[in-house]
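Quick start: read one record
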Amino acid sequence: MKAINPCDEFGPVLKTRFLGEKLRSTIGQLLNDGEVLRIDFAEVEAMSHAFADECFGDLFCEFGAQLFRDRLHLTNLNAAVKAVLRLVLIDRRDRSRA
C-alpha cells in the first residue's frame, strides 16, 4: 500500500479546484497502475468543498464506488474534513443515480 500525505505538497489547508485536480491526477495515475493507496490527512486542518469535489468527487465518478472503497483508504481525517468529503461523495453518488 502506497501512502500519500496531501499536506506534504499542498499544505495544511487544501483549497482550490486547480490543486484538487493536481492531487486527483496523481491518485488517478496510481490507481490506473493498480496501486492500493492510503491518503493520510493527519496534518490536514481543512479542505474546501471545491478541492474535495475536484479531487475525490471526480475520482469517485471515474473509478466507481466499489474501487474507491477497496483501493483508496482515507485515514486520519478530522471532523471538518470528514464532513466536507461526506457531502461531496453523497452528492456525487446521488447525481450518478439520477
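The chain has a mean pLDDT of 96.
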